[in-house]
Amino acid sequence: MVIVKRKKTGPGHLSRNLQSCETDEVKKILDKFYKRNEIQKLGADYGLDARLFHQAFISFRNYIMQSHSLDVDIHIILNDICFHAAHVDDLFPFFLRHAKQIFPVLECKDDLRKISDLRIPPNWYPEARAIQRKIIFHSGPTNSGKTYHAIQKYFSAKSGVYCGPLKLLAHEIFEKSNAAGVPCDLVTGEERVTVVPDGKQTAHVSCTVEMCSVTTPYEVAVIDEIQMIRDPSRGWAWTRALLGLCAEEIHLCGESAAIDMVTELMYTTGEEVEVRNYKRLTPISVLDHALESLDNLRPGDCIVCFSKNDIYSVSRQIEIRGLESAVIYGSLPPGTKLAQAKKFNDPSDPCKILLATDAIGMGLNLSIKRIIFYSLLKPTINEKGEKEIEPITTSQALQIAGRAGRFSSQFKEGEVTTMNHKDLGLLKDILSRPVDPVKAAGLHPTAEQIEMFAYHLPDTTLSNLIDIFVDFSQVDGHYFVCNMDDFKFSAELIQHIPLSLRVRYVFCTAPINKKQPFVCSSLLQFARQYSRNEPLTFAWLRRYIKWPLSPPKNIKDLVDLEAVHDVLDLYLWLSYRFMDMFPDAILIRDLQKELDGIIQDGVRNINRLIRISESQKLLNLEGLSAGSQALLSRTLKGQTRRMNITKAAGRKTAEPASPGSEKITLASRLVQQGLLTPDLLRQLEKEWLTQQTQQGKERTESGTQLKGPRRKKKEPNSD
Q: DSSP letter at 392?
């Protein structure tokens, strides 16, 4: 054995002595350490998966090869390994120590695993577990009367709650209940309506599913569209309602595809499920011929498109033929949708054709004879949050097709076909398939869980806390963690604004349309005002949206007005969470109703707006026929694959070196995606630089050197 004499010297001198062990030899030692399966398995036991192990090793190697002040103990063990006085595995304690420095999560991984353990969701609702609930599943296709029977039980109960997927449905039950002499309140994310003059709550409430109370006792609860428990983004709300509602009877309405999943979930709570099956009340048939030409349209036809541009294009072509059409799509305000539906349903109105997106699938009562699919390709977001364009699913096709020939309409038989003959075979194939069974129910981390994560990782951003939570979360086969890309988008958008974690969490749960730059910038502005403790008053908001607003002169103006309506929705949503800072909800609601009227006028004259937009070259409707959708699909699939590769590569890299570089990267991406305007970007950069300058002054004055939690994480990227 070779004995190496060591003398006590400074770390720098020790680092220079390491040169006695050749640099190439040290690299070989480190590479051997990295490749040993035993080391990788040992790393996994300490929470280092393949990605983290690789990042930690790159940083550890750079530290050893480039550091001018190598720790004494590492210096000693490396010399021993060089002279065969120690084994390469003896490096692991030092490697693990370094890994914990750059990944603080490793220090508390056991606690984090306990916090993010989502394997027994029924236990989250002790009030519901304390009673024996009766579960009745009303199963059937659209227009089968399943919801009607459930609502009758709701009306006859001493107390009840209706949980719907849309504001329109919540409004419908609210109105029907009060019309039937059953006093009922309304609760949605943006609205609270009490019917008793003194404001006292009634025994019945109609709400959107996210807003239901899991602590209030009811005699009867109705959960509509229960199959949406598998929705990648919103499924958690149905899971929460199903497991948590304190009702003696819970009536579920939905597709038969959800029966097995619901039965399995209720088995874990010790509750049995009674299934009541319903058949469609009126017949519906798939035609053997396609429409082929808009000349073949007849009263009661509804053309379903999956893009606004297709709606604009078809609307113009219908106008050229001397016909009048109503228009319904997702981003229209509820009042405008109802106005257009009323126009189409009115037998005395000359409008006999409806143009719509799949927004008609729920929440609107329409008198449709024939559904015509303009295309069968629809943009979707998968469970990973990735955008895809795929043929519609059987469930979607049945939901839309079922709007034809409804029992309450003037047409007692429904028909379904396609615009193009070549799509007809695919439509028949889609409709003939069984609906895919629901395999798992969605879950979502609560604010309390994220706060506990933040306690252990105080220097971690909210967006990164969500990533870590999802990585550590444990679910059994009945559940999945919902996609949280929208939440993370908002978290990154307002990251530089000083807010408490709970307030930041609430802002990030606010529903916004990411495709609208003005809506995104408004969330940012609202958060900024809140952080300054400056109430967002009616006068302030009027100035902000530049009220009064003019009627739309073209399609772009109409889209801008829709964005302003969404901003007012955002204000109202926040006003019920932060009443002191958003004090003028009543005035804003009146303003929103006025804006809804302006938008309704614009939609009534949509063809004129389209003509003007085309003449001003603001709208290009050429080449957007359904026949070109296949090419579009292939193109976007290729883009999606490239985006997936980029995202995967991004996940394998370490975190940004500093908050500044992260902000610039995020800002560039938002501008490229059209979610931020260049002017807003310049404003944000100016604010951020001002903030950094101020923080620098504070550090200088206090004589302390604050070390950002991410500075050490720069090292894995330096290889």
A: P
Task: Please report which helix (H) or strand (E) contains residue 33, including its range.
Answer: helix 23-35
Q: Which helix (H) or strand (E) holds 584?
A: none
Please give the angle made by the CA atoms of 387, 390 and 396, to the nearest 5 degrees.
Answer: 105
Measure the CA–CA gap between 560 and 551, rounded to whole angstroms. 11
Three-class SS of 465-517: HHHHHHHHCECCCCEEECCCHHHHHHHHHCCCCCCCHHHHHHHHHCCCCCCCH
Q: How far is CA 654 from the centre of its chain?
A: 25
Runs of H (alpha helix) within 126-280? 126-129, 146-156, 167-179, 235-244, 259-269
Cβ contact 603:555 at 8 Å: no
pLDDT at residue 581 in the model = 97
Closest C-alpha to 201, from 180, 222, 220, 187: 187
Which residue is associated with the tokens 């006695």?
A: 20
User: Which residues on adjacent β-strands are paired with residue 326?
Assistant: 354
Q: What is the distance of C-alpha 505 from the center of its chain?
A: 14
Tokens describing residue 317: 């072509």
Contact 396, 430 (CB under 8 A): no
C-alpha closest to that of 493 among 673, 648, 712: 673
Predicted confidence band of residue 113 (pLDDT cuts 50, 70, 90): confident
> Distance between CA atoms of 162 and 219, rounded to whole angstroms?
12
Check whether 645 has a pLDDT greater than 50: no
SS3 532: coil
Instruction: Tokens 């929208």: give the residue.
Output: 486
pLDDT at 166 over 80: yes
SS3 content of the chain, % helix, strand, coil (to 5): 55, 10, 35
Supply 492's token pair.
């990154």
Strand order in the sheet with 370-373: 284-286, 414-418, 370-373, 301-304, 353-356, 325-328
Q: Which phi and psi (to 5°) does residue 163 adopt?
A: -115, 110
Look at 464 and 626; give whichever has higher pLDDT: 464
